[in-house]
């Protein structure tokens, strides 16, 4: 197993194990390196040891090099909590185990019906356990089809039509339909059968310019609405 510096490409550490290494992870503070072996053991390598050399063979010692024992098959994934006190591991022995890093003891184990290929610890949202916490923007059930025509007009149960701005609520048809119509008319700007004489052409072009301004405003409102949702603090 080797550790490299990404910016320079220099090898910082090389550790030789007597078994194959199947998964690797650091703790958030990068004090320790955890390596999952093909024999089910998890090896903890201290990165702050005073006797740490560039090339070394793994051996358990009092400086922090230790072994977590419990899995019966190769360890496929590892994840360490943000405070560095807990470690999660998954294995081909069909179990997921939670470890106390300090004592190297397995706190609990979950059995599955097949090999575990991935497991990770994620930070919980700040309002996860608040009973009165609700989404700021309630949404109806999502439609199973992207094309509304597959389900009728798309306004029944499970469908939603969102229009931004008080002055756009009374418009008929969707904005995508209006955009397609506007594009087809603009492509036929020189066709007299569409616009008629020169005076009518000027009037129609003016109407199209107003329509373009409206669509630009709708696009801007939609962008600001999406930005507020994504940047709103929990």
UniProtKB/TrEMBL annotation:
Pfam families: WD40 (PF00400), WDR18_C (PF14077). It comes from the Eukaryota. Keywords: Cytoplasm, Nucleus, Repeat, WD repeat. Residues 186-233 form the WD repeat-containing protein 18 C-terminal domain. The keyword Iron-sulfur does not apply. Transmembrane segments: none annotated. WD repeats lie at residues 68-109. It is found in: Dynein axonemal particle; Nucleus, Nucleolus; Nucleus, Nucleoplasm. GO terms for biological process: DNA-templated DNA replication; rRNA processing. GO terms for cellular component: dynein axonemal particle; nuclear pre-replicative complex; nucleolus; rixosome complex. Functions as a component of the Five Friends of Methylated CHTOP (5FMC) complex; the 5FMC complex is recruited to ZNF148 by methylated CHTOP, leading to desumoylation of ZNF148 and subsequent transactivation of ZNF148 target genes. Component of the PELP1 complex involved in the nucleolar steps of 28S rRNA maturation and the subsequent nucleoplasmic transit of the pre-60S ribosomal subunit. May play a role during development. PANTHER family: WD REPEAT-CONTAINING PROTEIN 18, WD-REPEAT PROTEIN 18. This is WD repeat-containing protein 18. The lineage of its organism: Eukaryota, Metazoa, Chordata, Craniata, Vertebrata.
